[in-house]
Fold this sequence. Notes:
The complex is a heterodimer of chains A (120) and B (112). Chain A has 120 residues and is mainly β. Helix content of chain A is 0%, strand content 49%. In chain A, strands 2, 4, 5, 6, 9, 12 and 13 form a seven-stranded mixed sheet that branches. Chain A has a four-stranded antiparallel sheet with strand order 1-3-8-7, with no helix packed on it. A two-stranded antiparallel ribbon of chain A has the order 10-11. Helices cover 0% and strands 54% of the residues of chain B. Chain B has strands at residues 4-6, 11-14, 19-25, 32-38, 45-50, 54-58, 61-66, 71-76, 85-92, 101-102, 106-111. In chain B, the strands form two sheets. In chain B, strands 2, 4, 5, 9, 10 and 11 form a six-stranded mixed sheet that branches. Chain B starts with a strand and ends with a strand. The A-B interface holds A 4, 31, 33, 40-45, 48, 55-56, 91, 93, 95, 105-107, 109-114, 116 and B 4, 6, 8, 32, 34, 36, 41-46, 49, 51, 88, 90, 92, 94, 97-100, 102-105.
Amino acid sequence: EAEVAQSPRYKITEKSQAVAFWCDPISGHATLYWYRQILGQGPELLVQFQDESVVDDSQLPKDRFSAERLKGVDSTLKIQPAELGDSAMYLCASSSPYDRGHRVGLYGYTFGSGTRLTVV
Amino acid sequence: QKEVEQDPGPLSVPEGAIVSLNCTYSNSAFQYFMWYRQYSRKGPELLMYTYSSGNKEDGRFTAQVDKSSKYISLFIRDSQPSDSATYLCAMSVWGGSEKLVFGKGTKLTVNP
């Protein structure tokens, strides 16, 4: 079964340091999302890409967060400098409304296992 | 007021019990309603997906949507210890940005 790959699984960093997360979506999925999930909360969208273009980054703290998807495939989310409040699970998801020619709608929306970030 | 409200629990039930999980929402533009299951240290996985009012059944799981009351439910019959997880409701206005708006999640424990 196809998966969304994320690395690293866990990251501990000191505040004011830079940190980066990587995501490889399911092959053929044009849409890629980064969500942040604070402990005890539901995921919240940070940024959405359609191919290499940003569709929605309204909730991305742009003074310290950046995201790119240069070739429209894998993506990197960076935080610089990290703050204590950035400790959370960072989830990548990808979607396509079609699977092998069949319309699957939101069934095609798949999350990775996430990167758990701890800022100390 | 958040767009999606979900009682975080925690909820603890004996094996075999019927579990009822609920969410309310305020945005009448939501058209698609999902339930995700999230095990500890894992990403959410899709359980149920509906886009109309009424019931949808899949094995031991039933999703119910009442758009007039802006209320959705997930029922789990004959609950098993393997159902122990956090259950997240999520909603979307498909055709827009496709982002999912999640509830806080309800942590469920099914005791053998």
